[in-house]
Design goal:
The complex is a heterodimer. By secondary structure, chain A is mostly helical. In chain A, 74% of the residues lie in helices and 3% in strands. Chain A has a domain of 216 residues. Chain A contains 21 helices and two strands. In chain A, a hairpin with a 4-residue loop joins strand 1 and strand 2. Chain B has a domain of 217 residues. Chain B has a two-stranded antiparallel ribbon with strand order 1-2. The two termini of chain B are 27 Å apart. The chains are: A mainly alpha, B mainly alpha.
Chain lengths: 484, 478
């Protein structure tokens, strides 16, 4: 019940938004209050039920299409809980960071809440069709958010995003339908370990599902939609777009592709691991070449997503635990960096790295937090990403030694471009006389970034807060895969 | 042959709508300034017919009349609902417009005669009965398309529709005659026996001609070329109604002919259907991409959707037959609500794509409704169109045939291919600024209410699809 309530509260919020008076301030504070509710509920779930998320709990099941055994089945387990929490958190951050949404903020928040409904639903769905429905429910809101509130390139970016991910998800749907109809049910629980299908059928079904999920991540040869969308979006949309949406793909791998089709994905795991390494190395190299700060963060984000793919493909308890954790830590740091880029760009009027410089002199907080975020992105010990990347590489090394070695080299590359960026942007002499007048982040801006920074430190010191919840569920997946 | 009370009960929906048809015509002739009255009568007629059919379905009425040539089962009743529901909205949409033409009663009579023909059609189990019912529903529809005398395109569209339609009917009739010659009977049950073994050349030609005739009627490519002109020229209510209601009935009766009359020849007609389906999907979508006129775009879109439904026909083999039948039934219902709604929006927002610029700012309710219809036509969940496509894919997955897998792949590719033109409208409505010189259409309050109702139905479809699937499963056709 509490799961369903958490998922659908944003819907009520969206409806409420449409009936709000046209007062930007009031609308914003109401939206914050609405966004806080799912967050409070997930915190309650963590403290009250955090220890028994080994298998799906807090479940609810309703008949939907009985003739095909499709049901409204939701529940939370250790695999999805972290992202469930992060979705609630980042939606709130996105509301707080919505200062560049000047027009029609009511509609913006209503659409954001619809997207939140879909994202929360994905991480709680325990039925293939329901998973797909929630997966797609996020699509139109994201399309509208980019297309209405993005920059001048928004129209083509929005439709490109939509067509790419829709192609992926429709292909995935075909796989889901074939799976469910051959196995006789769409319940994720009952489909565990293949739902009684043979290896050939599993491989044939796994191929389209993996394709769809990898487009969503995006894995590197399938990533060309990403840059335009990230760069064109407003800051607030970036938070959700980079923090949550890629995880719809990686979570699908961890929750559905691997445990449900263990024999089917087996031949593809080396490919997924290789794609992970390609993401890491390619992301780092291309990020190095970006003149635009936002594009640099976008490619950095692609790079660190590679660790999730590598850890997942390792089918190793440590590696998968790292992958599940990396989903959350990646969301925290990328959201932090995107918001800070937004703050800096709003003050200096540019995102071009070569035109920035010496920002810490006038913006110590924003600059310092940018340094913190960049250090986290490099995987510096003591910050959250370190633990998850380290575990992913460990697992990756166990399963695919070469991949593990290349991935750890990737960390070095990412340190190079991130340190270069920091040196250019926040240190050094003040680049332009106008920057003497810059003001530091205001209270609202700090409210958007400080919680993320605090959590990066907290999960860096105590990763067990999340890994403890994930561990049993991850081990269940590894057992199905025949490892561990 | 005895006319029992049961036969009257089974024919009640048709009798009711025929009664209202005569009443509307008479009132139109004898009462002056009767626009409001005839419109209410016709709307009431559609509504009462709908409720009567629903009651028959609800009490589980089944019966065979006229020597087995006419059957009332859940399958037929289901399609009768899909015919009468849209008729109600078509009458609402037509009321104001047709009143303006001065021939309101005639136009509404035409709608009701299409309804009667289409309802009879899905109950027929005899090839010649099928032909008569089909003509009963198509001849008035030629007149409906050509009814708007103020626009030249209307006459042109009607003329093209008439000529191609008559050719199609002749081809179909020729096929029927050949099949009759082979089987020695026009009853589907007898044909099934004759078609159980290896097909003779004559039987094969008969089958191909029959299917070609049907392909014309459902605007399957390469027999689709009348569709864009007819739908562009037709009054909006006619295009909206004809693209969903009679078409659903034609798909229904085609399903009956193939499954009850030719189950032995599945291997032949399934291949034909697979071919038709692939060509139709690609032609519909590729041509729709180029359109700047919303009516024309929706006309090509309806071609594409015929292709998706035909994909379910291609999957009607082996284990997949029940799922394939369900797919056609669910798709037809899903398509009826979303496409009817999309066409009716034209009455309110005009037919130029540019006219939709900034609609979200000026008329948010209408823009959101149109957005819902467009997203549903793409097949996004949880809207109605998604379930139609999902069932088609399900049937394809179950069929176990390589050719059908190709068709399924084409359905996936075409769904993506259709995104740009449906979303072009969404983009204009939501991303662009309102154009100052946009010409609003001529719909009234009733049309607006219909649009909202249909948008709600497109969304709520997700909640009723479970019972609908159960109903389709128990429909009596295999």
């Amino acid at each position: 019940m509490i799961t369903t309530a958490t998922i659908f509260i944003p819907l009520l919020g969206a409806i409420l938004m449409l009936f709000m008076p046209d007062d930007a301030r009031l609308v914003r504070y109401t939206a914050m209050a609405v966004a806080a509710v799912p967050l409070v509920l997930t915190l309650y779930i963590y403290f009250a039920h955090g220890s028994d998320l080994g298998a799906a709990s807090l479940t609810q099941e309703l008949n939907w299409i009985p003739s095909l055994d499709i049901g409204y089945r939701v529940g939370l387990d250790g695999l999805g809980f972290g992202m469930f929490f992060l979705t609630a958190l980042l939606t709130l951050i996105a509301v707080v960071a919505s200062w560049d949404i000047q027009e029609n903020s009511r509609q913006y928040f209503a659409i954001l809440f619809l997207a939140e409904l879909g994202m929360l639903g994905v991480f709680a769905a325990q039925d293939l069709i329901l998973f797909y429905v929630f997966f797609e429910v996020t699509l139109i809101p994201m399309y509208l958010m980019v297309g209405i509130w993005g920059d001048e390139n928004r129209r083509s970016a929005a439709i490109k995003f939509f067509i790419y991910t829709f192609l992926g998800s429709t292909t995935m749907l075909a796989g889901f339908l074939a799976f469910g109809v051959l196995a006789g049910t769409f319940s994720i629980e009952e489909l565990n370990a293949g739902g009684g299908l043979g290896t050939t059928a599993q491989v044939a079904i796994a191929a389209p599902i993996l394709f769809g999920l990898l487009v969503k991540v995006p894995a590197v040869p399938l990533h060309s939609w990403l840059l335009d969308v990230y760069v064109s979006s407003p800051t607030s949309t970036n938070v959700v777009l980079s923090g949550i949406l890629p995880k719809l793909g990686t979570y699908g791998l961890i929750k559905i592709a691997l445990p449900l089709l263990p024999q089917g994905v087996e031949p593809f795991l080396p490919i997924v691991a290789a794609l992970g390494v390609v993401n890491i190395v390619y992301g780092a190299f291309v990020a190095f070449l970006q003149p635009d700060l936002k594009a640099l963060v976008a490619y950095s984000s692609i790079g660190t997503l590679g660790f999730i793919l590598l850890g997942t493909a390792s089918a190793d308890p440590v590696g998968m635990n790292g992958a599940v954790l990396q989903q959350v830590t990646h969301g925290l740091y990328s959201a932090l960096l995107f918001v800070l880029v937004g703050i800096i760009a709003s003050r200096t009027g540019t995102r071009t790295i070569s035109e920035l410089g010496g920002l810490t002199a006038r913006m110590p907080w924003a600059g310092g937090l940018l340094a913190l975020g960049a250090l986290a992105a490099m995987g510096v010990p003591g910050l959250a990403v370190f633990a998850s990347e380290f575990m992913s590489i460990m697992g990756g090394y166990t399963a695919f030694p070469l991949a593990g070695i290349l991935a750890s080299l990737g960390i070095v590359f990412s340190a190079m471009y991130l340190l270069y960026m920091l040196a250019r942007v926040i240190f050094g002499p003040i680049e332009k006389p106008a920057y003497e007048e810059l003001t530091d982040a205001g209270p609202m801006e700090m409210a958007a970034v400080v919680p993320l920074a605090v959590l990066l430190v907290l999960f860096g010191i105590l990763p067990g807060i999340l890994t403890g919840v994930q561990q049993p569920a991850v081990e269940a997946v590894v057992t199905v895969l025949g490892g561990g | 042959m005895s006319y029992t009370g049961e036969a009257f009960l089974g024919l009640m929906p048709e009798l009711i709508s025929t009664g209202f048809l005569i009443a509307v015509l008479m009132v139109g002739v004898f009462v002056e300034r009767s626009t409001g009255l005839v419109a209410s009568l016709a709307a009431l007629g559609a509504l009462v017919t709908f409720v009567g059919t629903a009651v028959l379905l609800f009490i589980g009425f089944e019966g065979e009349f006229f020597g087995g040539g006419y059957v009332v089962d859940a399958f037929a009743l289901y399609f009768k609902l899909i015919v009468t529901g849209p008729a109600f909205f078509a009458v609402l949409a037509a009321a104001r417009w047709s009143g303006g033409t001065g021939d309101g009663a005639e136009y509404l009579t035409l709608i009701l005669s299409v309804v009667v023909g289409a309802m009879l059609l899905v109950s027929m189990r005899d090839l010649f009965g099928i032909f008569l019912a089909l003509e009963l529903s198509t001849i008035p529809s030629y007149a409906m398309v050509a009814f708007d005398r103020r626009r030249r395109e209307s006459a042109e569209g009607g003329m093209k529709y008439l000529i191609t339609g008559v050719i199609a009917s002749s081809i179909m009739l020729y096929g029927m005659v050949l099949i009759y010659g082979v089987a020695g009977s026009a009853q589907l049950a007898d044909i099934a026996e004759a078609f159980s073994e290896q097909l003779t050349p004559v039987a094969l030609i008969g089958l191909v001609l029959l299917v070609s005739g049907f392909a014309f009627k459902v605007s399957a490519a390469p027999f689709h070329f009348w569709t864009p002109d007819a739908y562009q020229g037709a009054p909006t209510s006619a295009a909206a109604f004809l693209s969903v209601a009679p078409k659903a009935a034609i798909f229904g009766v085609l399903l009956r002919i193939l499954l009850e009359g030719m189950p032995g020849a599945t291997s032949v007609w399934a291949v034909v259907m697979a071919f038709l389906s692939i060509v139709t999907m690609f032609v519909g979508n590729l041509f729709a991409l180029r359109q700047r006129n919303v009516r024309r775009m929706l006309a090509y879109s309806s071609v594409a959707h015929s292709g998706y439904i035909l994909a379910a026909f291609a999957a009607l083999q082996g284990q997949a037959v029940p799922t394939g039948v369900q797919a056609v039934m669910i798709y037809s219902a899903a398509y009826a609500v979303m496409n009817m709604g999309a066409f009716l929006v034209i009455d309110l927002a005009g037919e130029e794509v540019k006219g939709y610029n900034g609609l979200f700012r000026t008329r948010p309710g209408l823009a959101i409704s149109m957005g819902v219809f467009m997203a549903a036509l793409v097949g996004l969940p949880p809207l109605s169109g998604f379930f139609g496509k999902a069932w088609v894919l399900l049937a394809g997955a179950q069929s176990g045939s390589g050719l059908v897998y190709v068709v399924v792949g084409a359905v996936v590719v075409n769904s993506v291919l259709s995104v740009p033109y449906y979303f072009g409208i969404i983009r204009n409505m939501f991303f662009e600024k309102p154009a100052g010189d946009a010409k609003p259409g001529e719909g009234g309050f009733a049309v607006e209410l219909s649009v909202y109702t249909l948008a709600a139905a497109t969304v709520i479809f997700a909640l009723v699809v479970g019972p609908l699937a159960a109903l389709a499963q128990a429909s009596g056709l295999l």
